[in-house]
Design goal:
Largest sheet: 6 strands, mixed
Shape: globular
Structural class: alpha/beta
Helix content: 40-55%
Radius of gyration: 14 Å
Distance between the termini: 10 Å
Oligomer: single chain
Number of domains: 1
Strand content: 15-25%
CATH architecture: 2-Layer Sandwich
Number of strands: 6
CATH superfamily: YqgF/RNase H-like domain
Length: 132
């Protein structure tokens, strides 16, 4: 089963893939110029790699939890991903963990690497909770 995860932000969408249920590979982030453009790019990427399941991080806790969950679910509804199962999981502190992991490595935070490392963390968390 080919898995992908996304860390959806207002400016960038972090993406990570896993093809063997063990190794998670961060991909280049999608830079959001608009919702429709980003949804189209992500849909094409998922189709191109033959992804079977999409893991989507949702923020839990915090004052804007409901608003962000609504925005993320709306964005996912824009994707053209028939046949791809979508699973939502808690992404709490994944961006913080990504910053910790990349401390001293990433100087330019706006290139999307941190977002894709956060997506990698989300997918690793998901893999640790399921039994194959």
């Amino acid at each position: 089963m080919k898995l992908a995860s996304v860390d959806i932000g207002l400016k960038r969408i972090g993406v990570a893939f896993c093809f063997d249920k063990k190794v998670v590979l961060p991909q280049n982030a999608i830079i959001r110029k608009g919702r429709n453009q980003a949804a189209k790019e992500l849909s094409e990427l998922l189709k191109e790699w033959g992804i079977d399941q999409l893991i989507v991080g949702l923020p839990k806790g915090g004052s804007s939890e409901e608003e962000m969950e609504r925005r993320i679910k709306h964005f996912i509804s824009l994707l053209e991903i028939e046949g791809i199962d979508t699973v939502y999981i808690d992404e709490s502190f994944s961006s913080f963990e990504a910053k910790e992991q990349m401390q001293g490595v990433v100087k330019q935070k706006r290139d999307g690497r941190l977002d894709s490392i956060a997506a990698k963390i989300i997918l690793e968390r998901y893999l640790s909770t399921i039994n194959y």
